[in-house]
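Here is an idea for our session: we take a single protein and study its fold together. Which protein we use is up to you, so please pick one and set it down. Once you have written the record down, we can walk along the chain together:
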Amino acid sequence: MKKLAVVLFFTLSITNAQDIPKDKQLHFAAGILSSSVGYDYVYSKTKDRKKAFAAGILASLLAGVAKETYDSTQPNNIFDTKDLAATALGGLTLSITIDVGDLLKKKKKKNKKNKK
């Protein structure tokens, strides 16, 4: 049942992806990029997944706020919270994906040890 829910979720997400403006897609990608840098840097220094998770999200938020603050200084432009949300969502998506991947690796490793 869980697999069906996941498949339906991604199917519906893909079909609605055409409605997302290119600008928001670029902000999402920037969130992923900034989050990966923040996550990787903190994890390489601390080896702490929780700190790295927080750093990834904070890095994407910082990038989004910096970009929107800069945009708001330009003529005929404002601080767009939807752009900030798209950037933060990209960071959150990457951080969750890495975190879940790490948990699955640990679980798989633990199962291999128990089988021996």
Observations:
- The helical segments are 2-16, 22-46, 49-72, 81-115.
- Residues 23-115 form one domain.
- The radius of gyration is 18 Å.
- The chain has four helices and no strands.
